[in-house]
């Protein structure tokens, strides 16, 4: 195992505190993969089923809350709306803290604890904070979270506080909080647990491993991700490379990234044929989990989408809200707005005529609907109040 710069190609034996190459570029983990032991597929479906494909310090015990193993749910009504053969939903709200972040956090916190970290820290729009706080509590290590003031959903903030994190609101955007936490990590005040830490993305690879295994290695035609900081879609690409090198798959799905219109620098870069993003200084969307104007893993995401002949699409807040409601009413799956962006993107691509009727599609739903209760209230009519009498109740039912 070693660290490798995705920009200059430099290889390092150890990762620096801020997880940046000396040239300033992003780092990724490079692993020499061996075939897992026979019978490994009989292990329970979870992140740690794939231990041999993950960077784990020798002798380390995983800091785990039994993450992964989430449902892959058929969505026939969505398939009908999108005019494709099949749609499946990877429901990441089933993770311990209600989002996909737990997959990466178990790996990164395991490594940080093994290295003797006294304080774990991150900047967050909510889900990372909730996850890091929970895994820090599990490991009995202090946690510090920097949040953009007034821009984090109540459900996520409540989780971080409940798990004992020191929560500090920063005047400004997520990107301002991110810059601050990187500086603190360089000075040794905390171990950085954002997705700039490539160990996080190693854990997040397991989402794609699971999708492939749940489909008995039948590769879908397309996997659709909501994109904020862009770590998840980047990790999915790395998982495809891994499974290809091990000989489990030959083809790759078209990785499709969906951003909110008010926070879509990756979509813009792809549409313009650019190889770097132009940051959005004041990103704006009700899907707060993807309200990021300067995605840390943007270069990795651009590479992932282009390498798989994928696409990126921006969707409006109205399309996201509509998709959130459709998921809940038609398929019985309650997802937060950022999660619903993947479904909104699928339906937008269908309306553009960009999908083939024979396609089998997996949409990644990154977090549970209860993460953002205020957004959930916009989906439904208020309750009806009546007297507890038979006639009044029957009339209300009608």
Put the structure in a nutshell:
The protein has 398 residues and is of the alpha/beta class. It has helices spanning 76-82, 101-114, 127-139, 154-162, 174-186, 198-214, 231-245, 265-271, 298-307, 317-331, 337-351, 373-377, 390-397, and strands at residues 2-5, 11-12, 27-30, 72-74, 86-91, 119-123, 142-148, 166-170, 191-192, 222-226, 254-260, 311-315, 360-365. The chain has a domain at 72-98 and 199-377: Rossmann fold (3-Layer(aba) Sandwich), CATH 3.40.50.
Give the SSE layout:
Layout: E1 2-5, E2 11-12, E3 27-30, E4 72-74, H1 76-82, E5 86-91, H2 101-114, E6 119-123, H3 127-139, E7 142-148, H4 154-162, E8 166-170, H5 174-186, E9 191-192, H6 198-214, E10 222-226, H7 231-245, E11 254-260, H8 265-271, H9 298-307, E12 311-315, H10 317-331, H11 337-351, E13 360-365, H12 373-377, H13 390-397
Parallel strand pairs: 5-13, 6-7, 6-9, 7-8, 10-11, 10-13, 11-12
Antiparallel strand pairs: 1-2, 1-3, 4-5
């Amino acid at each position: 195992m070693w660290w490798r710069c995705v920009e200059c190609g430099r290889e390092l034996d150890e990762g620096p505190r801020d997880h940046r190459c000396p040239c300033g570029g992003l780092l990724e983990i490079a692993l020499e993969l061996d075939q897992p032991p026979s019978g490994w597929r009989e292990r329970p479906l979870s992140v740690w089923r794939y231990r041999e494909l993950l960077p784990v310090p020798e002798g380390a015990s995983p800091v785990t809350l039994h993450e992964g193993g989430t449902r892959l749910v058929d969505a026939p009504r969505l398939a009908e709306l999108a005019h494709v053969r099949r749609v499946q939903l990877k429901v990441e709200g089933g993770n311990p803290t209600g989002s996909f972040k737990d997959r990466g956090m178990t790996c990164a916190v395991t490594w940080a604890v093994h290295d003797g970290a006294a304080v774990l820290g991150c900047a967050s729009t909510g889900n990372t904070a909730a996850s890091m706080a929970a895994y820090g509590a599990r490991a009995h290590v202090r946690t510090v979270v920097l949040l953009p003031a007034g821009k984090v959903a109540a459900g996520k903030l409540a989780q971080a506080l409940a798990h004992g994190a020191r929560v500090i609101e920063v005047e400004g955007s997520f990107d301002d909080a991110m810059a601050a936490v990187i500086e603190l990590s360089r000075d040794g005040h905390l171990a950085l647990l954002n997705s700039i830490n490539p160990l996080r993305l190693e854990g997040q690879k397991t989402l794609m491993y699971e999708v492939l295994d749940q489909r008995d290695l039948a590769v879908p035609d397309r996997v659709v991700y909501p994109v904020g900081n862009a770590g998840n879609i980047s990790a999915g690409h790395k998982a495809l490379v891994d499974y290809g090198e091990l000989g489990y798959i030959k083809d790759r799905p078209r990785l499709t990234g969906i951003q909110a219109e008010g926070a879509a620098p990756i979509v813009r870069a792809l549409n313009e044929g650019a190889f770097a993003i132009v940051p959005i200084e004041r990103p704006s969307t009700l899907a707060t989990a993807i309200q990021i104007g300067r995605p840390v893993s943007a270069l990795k995401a651009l590479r992932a989408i282009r390498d798989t002949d994928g696409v990126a699409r921006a969707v409006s807040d109205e399309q996201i809200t509509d998709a959130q409601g459709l998921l809940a009413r038609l398929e019985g799956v309650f997802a937060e707005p950022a999660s619903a962006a993947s479904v909104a993107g699928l339906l937008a691509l269908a309306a553009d005529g960009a999908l083939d009727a024979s396609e089998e599609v997996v949409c990644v739903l990154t977090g549970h609907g209860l993460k953002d209760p205020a957004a959930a209230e916009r989906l439904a009519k208020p309750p009806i109040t009546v007297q507890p009498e038979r006639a009044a109740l029957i009339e209300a039912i009608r």
